[in-house]
Amino acid sequence: MIPIIRPVLGEAEIQAAAGPLRSGWVTQGPETAAFEAEFAALVGARHACAVSSCTTALHLALLAAGVGPGDEVITASHTFIATANAIRYCGAEPVFIDVEPGGFNLDPELIGATVSPRTKALVAVHQAGMPCDLSRVVAAAEKAGLVLIEDAACAVGSRIRWQGEWQRIGRPHGRAACFSFHPRKLLTTGDGGMITTNDPDWDRRFRLWRQHGMTVPDTARHAAREVIFEEYPDLGFNYRLTDIQAAVGRAQLKRLEEILGRRRELAARYFNLLAEIPGLGLPLEPEWARSNWQSFLVKLPEGADQKTVMQYLLDHGVASRRGIMNCHQERPYLGARGGDRLPNSEAARDKWIILPLFHQMTEAEQNRVAEVLGRACSMGLGGGR
Ligand SMILES: *Cc1c(COP(=O)(O)O)cnc(C)c1O
Q1: Which atom of ligand 1 is nearest to the CA of 82?
Q2: What is the pLDDT of residues 328-364, one digit of tens each?
Q3: Is 351 a catalytic residue?
Q4: Which of 166, 190, 315, 341 has a CA-to-CA distance to 213 between 20 and 30 Å?
């Protein structure tokens, strides 16, 4: 079976994980601090705070934005459900806007008209690793007075041209950007997340809240020559990353350039191979964006039934996934504001599929995916079969 993705893990990560196990400092400590510094330098952010997942990163960023009960937060429905769930954790409600036609990122045109007096923030997703149109998103958020948070779960290593200069996603253009290290993303620590921000006060609050609201971290008490009593001024959480995970994350960061290069090479190969399949739609990479191709999606030819094509692929040893989900079509968000005006999101879920693309993928495997997909599309595997 040719999988959708496979983590890139090896001797370097195994050795790295052994470090904290030998030293005995196994949770948030020196490895986490080093991972944060390296990540901040990589993306060009002033601060990076490691947490247990992107979901918890989003939760803390929304809390820092002051999102609470009765508030609304504008975001895409066409995203992993964690984006909307983090808004609910704050007691607020997501308001969904559609994605751009033929794309997977929210349509900045729709932001202004969706704002109500209750709207506090905007969560812009860089879906599947493809940067959203940040300059227009930032302008719309500023105009509407919304706090902008980037859901960059999938977008480590992706780049955007900003005022003529290529930058990594994660150099915040809103107040904070949130990343995931789940194995379905490019870099993994098993589970894990990171929040980048240029605001020292936001960073200070993330550090407080991720560790139970404790004013003096145990690393500081451990190192102190005097007795220190900590306080708990705020309601906090246990959203720590362990030092075992952080050590693995540091080894993963060293592989990023190589992983990005290989993924972009494989994506370019897909563009050539798949152009041969009549009626198949390919993803759009705007000239101001460089995707990390965390997911490679294709639009099935008109009339080809999604489930039938996917079953054919599965029967022939090729894994695939339906297009990215829509939150408004899942039970917790049925009836959410905006959910009745999302035609592009619904088409994106039902007409696109995700193809295998992983670092270790061989050209023979990629040829096989294209060949089987071509057959699935041409065999008239249409609707009513
Ligand atoms: C994966 C993902 C998340 C959740 O990340 P976790 O680290 O699993 O919590 C959030 N948003 C998007 C867009 C994602 O793809």
Answers
A1: 10
A2: 999 999 999 999 999 999 999 999 999 999 999 999 9
A3: no
A4: 190
